[in-house]
Amino acid sequence: MPFSLWLSLAAVCAMGAMSPGPSLALVLRHTLGGGRAPGVVAGLSHALGVGLYALLTVWGLGALIVRQPALFQVITWAGAAYLAWLGLKALRAGRAGPLEAGAVPTTRRQAAREGMLVALGNPKLILFFIALLSQFVTPDMSLAAKAVIVLTAMIIDGAWYVMVAVGLSHSRVLPWLQARSHWVNRITGVLLLALALRVVAGPLA
Description:
Layout: H1 3-18, H2 22-34, H3 36-67, H4 69-92, H5 108-120, H6 123-133, H7 143-168, H8 173-201
């Protein structure tokens, strides 16, 4: 995979990870309720779930491109519509949201279990990956290139939530994030809309 293409993949994966939602709320809750360690565990277990979804998506998309190119095109356009919907939803989001998650007592075992369940139990995650990875998967893609895609999605997701957990262990960080959560929503919304337009324009090259 060319480095410039990988940068595009990494940027989109980072955007998806940083977008406020139930995953961020989960890491916030476990960090505030149990400290840095449960928050980190929740983030890492969530990343494992993301990696599993990415693996299944890449594997399935590769076969679909070869066997059903017309169906793959339909899925790609549906994915673009989904990304656009996410972008509009993020733009309309106000200040209130997952950044206001309360502190509830928690353990590392609970954090590990819930981190994986939130990832695997979120149907929007698989739709996001289908819309995203359709721009990077080709019929002749090597196994190594597919592994790079899966590892990129998993590592970026895990790194972001570990950073969130570590940052939230300092009491001054949470108020700063709460005050600026609406800007995170707005920036994410613009980027998602731009990505939807790029999907309509055609596969990245």
